[in-house]
Specification:
This protein is an alpha/beta fold. It is built from 18 helices and twelve strands. Strand 4 and strand 5 form a beta hairpin. Helix 9 crosses helix 10, helix 9 crosses helix 17 and helix 17 runs antiparallel to helix 18. The longest helix has 25 residues. The radius of gyration is 25 Å and the shape is globular. About 0% of the residues have low confidence.
Length: about 425
């Protein structure tokens, strides 16, 4: 009798083990690789990923590490045609290269146009080629025009500049009144930050630098005017700190926090909170966010967006499950939760008008207005070569060793072999 019971019990356990093994084998699993978000001190992305697993039954191997390491792994894997990843980090500078190589899946078949239209258009445009969308933003790193409202008030200036002429005039007025040392400081050391500033100013003068096919337009008058304005700020009007030539982004922020400058035309979102932190700032309560961005003419206003997206590699064998993960993690609900708990910028238009979020972050309303004009860096498969030439020649102009026209011609000579 005991042997029969023992046999039945053993058989029962064996069947349970077989069923469990079958369920584990049958359960879909995807692999996701992405950088750690610098604001996610709570591990909220990990938490939401585990909630996704519970709700969908899809297992997720989530790989997070520093951005540079993620980039190395993603680029190496895609170049080799590997199948290790189902959802990948997709940086804004990779769009043209990945599209040309056919490395990522178009997402239009997964996402309806009416849903796409609810996202910030600048973010959608950044990760699109033509009308085809390849990535959904998870990290909205858009730059915004902030200014020291207290300095403007003390100078009797009613509102911040809408044009670069007004930027110059207002800066000179505050400098003459000993309220500030310079209108702004800019990150003009020879690095990507200088290329970013040149791109931003060029956009604000009506130059895209390149047409949609990658043909240069930076030899045309709007680009010449933009670079001339940059040079004038250093060499003629002197409204930009000359020490900017050796500054990185953090250094320009510190000058602003010290009250030595009044304007921060391309501030990142964290500048607002940092400006109100008494441990690092002398301008507590002074900072404000404008409803617009300065430009040569108001209708030319633009700001840079440097976001990161999630994409599905064409080599993934689990594309449908990969999309379910992206859809879940970038949904209105999860996006709002991250905004509430860790203060990340939303990717959906509606969240910039959400009463609950605006009560926490009232300045977001103006973020949303500026974000409507967000534009990406030029989308070139050879962007690194362009950026390097750009940095060298822009510095030559700012130091007065080359004219804007000569510098732009030198940029063309450096990259003309890449132009089809």
């Amino acid at each position: 009798m005991r042997e029969r019971r023992s046999f039945k019990m053993g058989l029962f356990v064996t069947i349970l083990l077989m069923l469990f093994t079958f369920s584990v084998i049958a359960q879909e699993q995807i692999t996701v690789i992405m950088p750690r978000h610098e604001m996610d001190v709570k591990g909220l992305w990990e938490q939401q990923t585990r909630e996704f697993e519970k709700e969908t039954g899809i297992k997720v191997e989530l790989i997070t590490m520093a951005w540079d390491r993620v980039a190395d792994k993603v680029l190496t894997e895609l170049a080799a045609g590997g199948t290790s990843f189902d959802v990948i980090e997709f940086d804004n500078a990779w769009v043209a290269k990945f599209n040309a190589a056919g490395w990522v899946v178009p997402l239009n078949n997964y996402m309806k146009p009416e849903v796409i239209n609810q996202m910030l258009p600048g973010l959608v445009k950044t990760f699109s080629v033509g009308e085809t969308l390849y990535g959904i933003v998870w990290n909205n790193d858009t730059r915004f025009f902030m200014y020291n409202g207290k300095k403007l008030e003390d100078a009797g200036i009613a509102e911040p500049p809408r044009t670069w002429d007004e930027f110059t005039t207002q800066s000179q007025k505050m400098i003459s009144a000993n309220l500030i040392k310079y209108g702004s400081s800019e990150a003009c050391e020879q690095s990507q930050s200088l290329a970013n500033w040149h791109t931003f100013i060029s956009y604000s003068f009506g130059s895209s630098l390149f047409d949609p096919d990658g043909k240069p337009t930076f030899l045309e008058q709007p680009a010449i005017d933009a670079l001339t304005f940059m040079a004038d700020c250093f060499l003629k009007t002197k409204v930009i700190d000359p020490a900017s030539l050796t500054m990185n982004q953090e250094m320009t922020a510190n000058v602003f926090y010290n009250g030595d400058t009044a304007f921060f035309p391309q501030a990142w979102p964290g500048v607002y909170n940092a400006s109100n932190d008494p441990a690092i700032s002398k301008i507590i309560g002074g900072i404000q966010v404008a409803e617009y961005i300065p430009a040569a003419k108001p209708e030319l206003q633009a700001t840079l967006n440097l976001p990161e997206a999630l994409a599905i590699p064409t080599t993934s064998k689990k594309k449908d499950s990969a999309w379910k993960y992206i859809e879940y993690m970038t949904s209105l609900e999860r996006d709002k939760q991250r905004s509430k708990e860790i203060g990340t910028l939303p990717i959906w238009k509606a969240h910039f008008e959400d009463p609950e979020l605006l009560a926490l972050y009232p300045y977001w309303k103006n973020f949303g207005k500026q974000a409507e004009y967000a534009r990406a860096l030029p989308q070139l498969t050879w962007y690194d070569e362009w950026s390097y030439a750009e940095q060298i020649e822009v510095q030559n102009v700012l130091m007065g060793t080359k004219s804007p026209q000569d510098a732009l011609q030198s940029m063309y000579e450096a990259i003309k072999k890449n132009v089809q």
